[in-house]
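User: Can you recover a sequence for this backbone? Please restate the input before giving your answer.

Assistant: Of course. Working from this structure:
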């Protein structure tokens, strides 16, 4: 057994350790540094950026309007940064995060190539011990995880994957070096938000493209365009209004919902509104729609039929069009991918839709993929097969709380938290953008700023009052779980077979059929109100000591 006391004296100590240098971690370390606290950030990779550091696949970009994705906390930052596209691509997003880090001199608090393998709570000293890959160790009074909900990629588990002699990588691990596409036969597995971006982007750059589709997804046009200097100047003038609008809306976007009421309009009037939304960039078709579309089966069916017609109108081959139209779930029930010429890609002679619902993949071979019907010769296989949503990022670390209990065991049937911030039995472990917070269901950075501000408020309170321990209460967790469940039950998202429902067939125990309540669907304004109340009431929903 390890002699903890002896080892502990050798570990580097800091009062606060943030884990993860993505969008959440960067803002969190800034807030702690501004308070003059003894805080550092540990990041597994060799640089900052998280999601925007990793996802370098062709076509990777925001689905949120760029000017609603950036941080809102600094007027100066808003003045200085120029977004060049309405939906900014990955390289620019990574440049932005680097710009933020440089501007606020945040790198000095960050330790890269510092992968946390294990975290162990010591009740006697009220500290966490963090063991890093490679043997280094840290201790901290508080750990704040900023791990990201989509940072544990899940490749499929087909036989023969090791035998394939071409290139194959998950989109999250797309190499930094240029990947040749010209003249190659490429297979893409997965048609989620990622697959749809990749497919549309590379269709005209590869020799042959085979799309291995298990279930089709609804998808609508992104509507990207350049942002001119004049437009950017106008955006800058309107930032206050833009962020105020984001704060007002359920999803944290600029698009306001239509309050006329689905049932108060004729089918023609509804169609006219949907025509408008379909032509509007971004998530207008979700955020600007009638609420009934996401609450009532019949309204949802009418909307789904409308989008299905749009797909039929864009795909030349009617048989292919039918295969691209989801029949097992309604519009907006899973995370909606946004696309640029995705459906038109299937009108190209070099793009082939392989319907896995008819002929599943049997195995990978040395030279390609064997389905039950055919063998496909491939040079490159792109695995756009998704993530072990939210809990996967925690599962990668062996986290042991009170009495050595493993977090992975506590969460094996789904995460349990108070408001997504803390979990019972794991004192002084604070989570930003954690499971069952509102981050997963909204415009991510808007919710992140709320979450980080709340955690920072709690930290200030504890410092001020001389408190050294916080723990989540089981009764509060139970009530929060009920609130989270109710947020799903109210909406058709309760039928999601995608990651909104915590599904992932590539993770043992998370297969099709296991629903996990991974996010809060009650909307950003309600969530903000609830967590603000917690703070105003002196955080008495938590055990503070
Ligand atoms: P998603 O949305 O989870 O999509 C994964 C896709 O991969 C989806 O179409 C899956 O089909 C498919 N998939 C997963 N495993 C397999 C296997 N084993 N065989 C065939 N097909 C498979 O992940 P994304 O990366 O697209 O998007 C994640 C988020 O990133 C997105 O929501 C944005 O917020 C950014 P299925 O539907 O399960 O049948």
């Amino acid at each position: 057994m390890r002699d903890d006391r002896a080892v502990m004296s050798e570990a580097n100590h800091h009062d606060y350790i943030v884990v993860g240098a993505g969008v959440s971690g960067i803002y969190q370390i800034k807030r702690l540094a501004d308070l003059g606290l003894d805080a550092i950030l540990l990041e597994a990779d060799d640089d900052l950026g998280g999601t925007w550091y990793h996802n370098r696949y062709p076509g990777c970009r925001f689905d949120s309007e760029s000017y609603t994705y950036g941080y809102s906390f600094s007027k100066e930052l808003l003045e200085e940064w120029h977004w060049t596209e309405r939906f900014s691509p990955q390289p620019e997003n990574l440049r932005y995060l680097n710009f933020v880090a440089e501007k606020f001199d945040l790198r000095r608090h960050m330790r890269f190539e510092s992968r946390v393998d294990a975290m162990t709570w010591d009740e006697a000293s009220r500290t966490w011990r963090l063991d890093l890959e490679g043997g280094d160790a840290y201790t901290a009074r508080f750990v704040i995880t900023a791990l990201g909900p989509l940072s544990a990629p899940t490749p499929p588990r087909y036989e023969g994957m090791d035998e394939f002699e071409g290139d194959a990588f998950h989109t999250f691990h797309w190499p930094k070096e240029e990947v040749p596409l010209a003249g190659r036969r490429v297979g893409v597995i997965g048609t989620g938000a990622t697959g749809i971006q990749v497919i549309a982007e590379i269709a005209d750059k590869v020799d042959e493209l085979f799309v291995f589709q298990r279930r089709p997804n609804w998808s609508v046009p992104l509507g990207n365009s350049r942002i001119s200097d004049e437009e950017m100047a106008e955006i800058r003038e309107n930032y206050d209004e833009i962020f105020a609008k984001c704060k007002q809306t359920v999803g944290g976007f600029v698009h306001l919902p239509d309050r006329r009421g689905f049932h108060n309009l004729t089918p023609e009037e509804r169609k006219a509104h949907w025509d408008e939304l379909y032509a509007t960039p971004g998530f207008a078709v979700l955020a600007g729609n009638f609420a009934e579309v996401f609450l009532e089966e019949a309204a949802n069916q009418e909307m789904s039929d409308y989008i299905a017609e749009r797909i039929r109108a864009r795909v030349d081959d009617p048989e292919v069009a039918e295969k691209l139209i989801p029949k097992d779930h309604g519009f907006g029930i899973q995370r909606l991918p946004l696309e640029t010429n995705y459906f038109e890609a299937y009108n190209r002679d070099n793009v082939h839709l392989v319907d896995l619902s008819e002929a599943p993949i049997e195995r990978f071979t040395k030279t390609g993929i064997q389905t039950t019907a055919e063998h496909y010769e491939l040079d490159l296989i792109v695995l756009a097969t998704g993530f072990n949503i939210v809990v996967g990022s925690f599962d990668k670390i062996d986290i042991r709380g009170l009495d050595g209990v493993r977090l992975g065991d506590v969460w094996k049937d789904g995460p349990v938290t108070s408001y997504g911030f803390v979990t019972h039995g794991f004192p002084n472990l604070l989570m930003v953008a954690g499971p069952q917070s509102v981050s997963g269901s909204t415009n991510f950075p808007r919710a992140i700023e709320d979450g980080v501000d709340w955690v920072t408020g709690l930290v200030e309170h504890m410092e001020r009052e001389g408190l050294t321990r916080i723990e989540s209460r089981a009764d509060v967790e139970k009530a929060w779980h009920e609130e989270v469940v109710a947020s799903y039950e109210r909406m058709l998202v309760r039928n999601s077979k995608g990651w909104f429902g915590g599904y992932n067939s590539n993770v043992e125990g998370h297969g099709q059929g296991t629903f996990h309540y991974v996010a809060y669907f009650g909307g950003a304004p309600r969530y903000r109100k609830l967590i603000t109340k917690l703070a105003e009431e002196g955080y008495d929903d938590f055990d503070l000591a």
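That completes the design. The mean pLDDT is 95.
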